[in-house]
Design a protein that fits this description.
It comes from hydrothermal vent metagenome. The protein has 22 helices and 12 strands. It has 467 residues and is of the alpha/beta class. The chain starts with a strand and ends with a helix. The chain is 45% helix and 12% strand.
Length: 467
């Protein structure tokens, strides 16, 4: 993973590059006076970047659960370099962009068993590569799910005995569990890891939420952002590098919406959007004021992604778009921002580009069998407890930001009814009030809170732009 800039004194050119998977961020601002770059938007805002709202990004922000695909960001004056891309900028400000890696999503000649064996080899190699490229102790962020558990298992399989693991949990709300300790504890016991477990009450979340948002390079609505922030605070007191499981679901078909997309009818974008996009475009038009009614940019972007060559079938296009474009600006950026806020480096073996290339060559039917992630489950048999392998897919839980009630509802209502929000003029306040009045009637296709999405964007702007 990398993001770097090199000045060529002989040619008076700046060369800028970002790693294949976009694990490390690189933002820039180009004006008539200068090309400025940084690892977050806040630094560019501090040197005078235009902070007006980008209407293209706004529509995507509220449609792709906080994802704004590169090169846009929510701010007109800040862009980000696409993954697997280089920029060459000359002294006159001319920019030449080149993409140096674009994986195909086509079948190889390997059998199913060979695909699984190759997955095992590449994942083990990816884990060990990230363990060995450090001169400090490394731990694992252990959620209790298959992905992080498998990282622990592979480390043990490779001969690592002194494995450190870290887990966090929150309060339950109704039937929504706030932790996955039931499963992480099994991994700790099986591999005798040196484990730290942190429990956070809902009363502790709101006072710390502003800190997490201040460390977001862009507004991120994932409920687990604050969880990673609070977990990283504690972990950073003990070690400086961790392994995390981001990318496994996208590479190996772990999400519940993939089978729904596959069985859906309609155009490719319609099949995708029905089970992924947060709000219909018609609702978006009701949500924001007219100056931001500039077109369905999410649909246009998806059409462009799905039209790229070298994908055998619809689900191959979905997986390639997810692992090369969407994951970058959702879980990967979230974990990078929240860990680096505490000087903790998160490494993501499932995002190893050779493993991703291999995963994209596996047929969707093989990846999606056993309710998803079949290759990873086969690797795990005999290594992990069956109860962890066969459990229902979980999500790093933060129930209070999903089922918005009580003080969390009051908090979000205050943000959206604030003078700053009204004066910003982005939202249609009449529609926003409907969402505030019935938040659980406005859930996304992925079971997220649309109220939280609206509040988080405004809160991010208040903290990072207004203050």
């Amino acid at each position: 993973m990398f993001a770097f800039c090199i000045w060529n004194q002989k040619t008076n050119q700046l060369f800028v590059a970002r790693d294949r998977m976009g694990i490390k961020p690189l933002y820039f601002s180009l004006t008539n006076q200068a090309f400025s770059f940084a690892s977050n938007t806040q630094a560019l805002v501090a040197v005078g970047a235009d902070t007006s709202i980008n209407s293209v990004a706004l529509q995507q922000q509220l449609s792709l659960h906080g994802v704004v695909p590169a090169p846009n960001t929510i701010l007109n004056g800040v862009n980000k370099i696409k993954p697997a891309t280089t920029l060459t900028i000359d002294a006159k400000g001319k920019v030449v962009e080149k993409t140096y890696w674009q994986p195909s999503a086509q079948r190889s000649e390997l059998s199913d068993d060979e695909h699984i064996e190759r997955t095992h080899e590449l994942l083990t190699k990816a884990v060990l590569k990230r363990m060995n490229a450090a001169d400090v102790p490394i731990g694992v962020l252990l959620s209790g799910g298959l992905d992080s558990s498998l990282l622990v298992g592979l480390l043990h399989e490779a001969g690592h005995q002194d494995i450190r693991t870290f887990s966090i949990g929150f309060e339950d709300i109704d039937d929504e569990a706030g932790s996955e300790f039931e499963y992480s504890d099994q991994i700790v016991k099986k591999f005798n890891t040196k484990h730290e477990k942190y429990v956070v009450s809902n009363s502790q979340v709101l006072p710390r939420l502003g800190e997490a948002v201040a460390n977001m390079a862009e507004p991120m609505v994932g409920q687990d952002a604050v969880a990673f922030y609070l977990l990283s605070e504690q972990v950073s007191k003990q070690i400086k590098v961790v392994l995390s499981g981001q990318g496994a679901d996208e590479a190996f078909a772990g999400y519940f919406w993939y089978p729904r997309m596959q069985s859906e009818s309609g155009t490719e974008v319609e099949r995708f959007a029905k089970h992924y996009v947060d709000r219909p475009y018609e609702e978006y038009l009701q949500t924001v004021n007219q100056q931001h009614h500039s077109g369905n940019h999410t649909e246009a972007w998806l059409n462009k992604e799905f039209a790229k060559a070298n994908a055998d079938e619809f689900m191959d296009k979905v997986f390639r778009t997810d692992i090369t474009r969407l994951v970058v600006d959702d879980p990967v950026k979230r974990v990078d921002n929240m860990t680096m806020a505490w000087g903790l480096e998160a490494r993501v073996p499932f995002m190893d580009y050779q493993l991703v290339e291999h995963a994209l060559s596996i047929s969707p039917s093989l990846k999606m069998s056993e309710e998803g992630k079949h290759p990873l489950k086969q690797i795990s048999r005999g290594l992990l407890p069956d109860s962890v392998i066969d459990r229902k897919k979980g999500y790093f839980p933060m129930p209070a930001l999903k089922y918005v009630r009580g003080e969390f509802l009051d908090f979000m209502a205050d943000i959206l009814n604030s003078t700053q929000c009204i004066n910003r003029g982005v939202y249609n306040q009449d529609f926003v009030q409907k969402v505030i009045d019935q938040p659980e009637q406005y859930m996304t296709a992925l079971n997220g809170s649309r109220l939280w999405h609206l509040a988080l964007l405004e809160y991010w702007l208040q903290i990072n732009i207004d203050e």
